[in-house]
Amino acid sequence: FDGDNVVAQAAVFFTAGYETSGTTLSFTLYELALHRDIQNKLRNEIIKGLKMSGGKITYEM
């Protein structure tokens, strides 16, 4: 996935009418905003996964 594809998928995710999924993602983002330590841990795990996959987002990450 490239950046545009991720943004498009997120837009579909929110507008497709899946209230429970949207609510869950909203609460997740809210909690990440409140807890910088968890946000940093997640960021580091994403960076590590990207390095392991050659910079590509894959399902195996």
UniProtKB/TrEMBL annotation:
GO terms for cellular component: endoplasmic reticulum membrane. This is Cytochrome P450. Gene3D superfamilies: Cytochrome P450. The keyword DNA-binding does not apply. PANTHER family: CYP9F3-RELATED, CYTOCHROME P450. The keyword Metal-binding applies. It is a peripheral membrane protein. Transmembrane segments: none annotated. It is found in: Endoplasmic reticulum membrane; Microsome membrane. Belongs to the cytochrome P450 family. Its main location: endoplasmic reticulum. It comes from Bracon brevicornis. One of its GO terms (molecular function) is heme binding. Its cofactor is heme.
